[in-house]
Structures are given as C-alpha cells and as structure tokens.
Design goal:
mainly alpha; Arc Repressor Mutant, subunit A; transmembrane; 370 residues
Length: 370
C-alpha cells in the first residue's frame, strides 16, 4: 500500500477526489439547508445531454467543451425547474422529477446516436454516466482547483447574503436583497460542483457528493460556518478514501467507492453524533424513562406515607412492583444510590421495606424532578 501511494495516477486521482469532495460538500451544505438537495440531482442528470452536445460541437472528446456544455445544460435544467414551479400548479418536487427525466432521456438518446455513428473518437463517452477517475490528468486537476477557488471566493464574498437566503429568503427580500439572483448564484455553484465531478463520479452518482457530506456535517454542528467547513472536510476525506480504496482493490471503480465512503460517513454521523445521533437520542429517551419511573415510585411512596399519616412509612418492594411492574425493583435501587429512598428490615420476617428519605420527600413534593 505504501508503494501504491507513491503512484502518479493514484496521487492525481486522490487530489482530484479531494478537491471534488471539498467543493461539493461546501456547496451541498447550502443546498441541504435550502431543501433543494434534489436540485443537484436534476443538474447532474441534465449534464449528460450537455456533455454530448459539447462532444458534437468540438467534433471529438475535448474535455473543456464537454464540461462547458454540461454547465449550460445544468443551468438550463435548474432554470426550467424554477420556471415550471413558479408559473404552473406543478410543485417543485414534481418539476424536479419531470426535468430530470426529460434531460436525462435526451442525453441517453444523444449518447446512443453518437455511439451508433461509428468512429473511435466517441469511445468511452459513456464513462460520464458512472465516472472514470483513472482517465484524469494533471491538467484536469488544475481546472478543478480553479473552479474550487472560484466557488470558495463566491461563498466568502457573498457569505452573509447566501446565509440569509438559505435560512429566510422572505426576510432577505424584505431587506431588499436580490433573492432571485442569489438563488441563481447558489444554483450556479451547484452546477459548477457537478461539472467538475462528472468525469470522476459520473452524472448518476454525483448527487451523493452534494447531499451526503452536508447531511453528515449537519449532525455534528449547529452553525452554518462550521457546517460548511465540516461538510467540505467530510467530502475531501471520502474522496481520498475512495481513491485509495480503488487503488488497493484492483477492478473496483473509484467513483462508486467514493460514494460508498461518503455515505458511510453520513450513516456514522446519523448514528454517533453526540446531540442529533440516533444513539444519543436513544440514550436520552432511556434516561427520560428512568426519570419518569423514579418520579412515579417516589409519588407512590409519598402517597402511601400520607395515607398512613406516617412520614416514615415503609412499603415492601413487592407492593411497589405490583403498582409499577417488575422494573420497580431496579428503580428502587437507583433511587437508593441517589439518596432518595432507604431500605430497612421489617419484623417479623425481616422483609425489606422502602422509606423516603428527607431528600426523597422533598423530591416527591417538588414533582420528582429526578
């Protein structure tokens, strides 16, 4: 593996994957917060006819022309989604599905026609469906890096505006901000991220690079700034992991491995995040159930003491278990460790009885906050 890391091709692919992951992660954070994650899917699928059109215009496999066509087609698809949603009764999600299917179908038809025309120039054009990272050159990395710098500069320069549009576009409009132009700018950033990713990941899987890093970062942080940074970091790490994994296991495609890596990060975040994670939520629910059980047991002991007009009245564990189920015995032991109840041996058979302590009576009187 150490020798593989020094391979020129692996270094090129890993660097490109890191750039792609960082750019897609940063842009995807805004798309996720705007609830337009599927816009990236529409733009990615719409890139296919643009790639084919660029191939036809250039008369061969000229990457710059093909990516320019992908960018134009992606922006056209995004504009079509917005136009349909605003000028008709079709909802945005339906418009996304309609435009996605239409553009992708057109792309498949164009791809089939190009392949049927014969000639060697179009060989490998279908690799844009699922990506072909091994075909990347250092010149492609330079283009990706330039786009990454452009995206980062746009986010930094328009940070406040993008932030406001992402969270509250109506308030942004009240403030006089050009909401439509800002939303168009964010969509353009999504399209740029898609364009630099289609060669490595492909139009089919590119959506995961936009959604998964942002979804993972959202589980760990509460503020937009850390979310964008963490999302970009998750995307870069997943990109490198997929590239290295592909090099270590010959025959496995890099793009799908990158998507699997970033999805694993998202799944791990959904499970392990300290505040929003599923395990943390389950632990909070369990703690709430324990607190509720303790409050109920304290209330029962206090009620029994009041009924017998004896603050020191003791109740047997079996009686408490009859009232609250078999788990009441564990609850009594826990309350004992908290100093809220104490056991004593009752004559003549020495069975344990449970009494409220002073702290327990106070907790019961206060509603059993513990």
């Amino acid at each position: 593996m150490i020798a593989a890391l020094s391979d020129y091709t692996l270094q090129t692919v890993a660097l490109g994957a890191a750039i792609l992951g960082a750019v897609a992660g940063a842009v995807g954070a805004f798309a996720l917060l705007r609830r337009q994650s599927l816009m990236g899917d529409a733009v990615a699928h719409a890139a296919l006819p643009g790639i084919c059109a660029g191939f036809l215009i250039a008369g061969g496999r000229q990457l710059e022309t093909m990516l320019a066509g992908a960018l134009v087609a992606g922006m056209a698809a995004a504009g079509a989604v917005v136009w349909i949603a605003r000028t008709s009764r079709i909802k945005a999600d339906a418009a996304l599905g309609l435009v996605l299917s239409l553009f992708f179908a057109a792309g498949v038809v164009m791809l089939t026609a190009i392949q049927g025309a014969g000639g060697a120039a179009q060989a490998g054009l279908e690799s844009f469906l699922f990506g072909q990272a091994a075909a990347m050159l250092r010149s492609d990395i330079a283009v990706m890096a330039g786009v990454g710098v452009l995206v980062a500069a746009a986010i930094l320069l328009l940070w406040k505006e993008f932030k406001l549009v992402a969270f509250d576009p109506l308030y942004a409009a009240v403030l006089g901000l050009p909401v439509m132009a800002l939303e168009l700018g964010l969509t353009l950033l999504v399209a740029l991220a898609v364009v630099i990713g289609v060669q490595m990941v492909g139009v089919v899987l590119m959506t995961a690079m936009l959604v998964a890093p942002a979804a993972a970062a959202r589980q760990w942080v509460r503020r937009l700034g850390p979310m964008v940074v963490l999302s970009a970091l998750f995307g870069a790490v997943a990109g490198v992991a997929g590239a290295v994994g592909s090099a270590g296991a010959r025959g496995l495609a890099t793009g799908p491995l990158i998507v699997l890596a970033v999805t694993a990060l998202a799944a791990g975040s959904l499970l392990l995040a300290p505040e929003r994670g599923l395990l943390a939520a389950a632990a909070r629910r369990q703690a709430a159930r324990r607190r509720l059980a303790g409050r109920r047991v304290l209330a029962s002991l206090q009620q029994l003491a009041d009924d017998h007009d004896d603050p020191a009245y003791g109740a047997e564990a079996g009686m408490i278990a009859t009232l609250h189920g078999p788990g009441a015995r564990r609850t009594l032991r826990r309350l004992e460790t908290e100093g809220l109840v104490r056991p004593s041996a009752a004559p003549p058979d020495g069975r344990a009885q449970w009494h409220l302590t002073e702290a327990g009576r106070q907790a019961a009187a206060d509603g059993g906050r513990r």
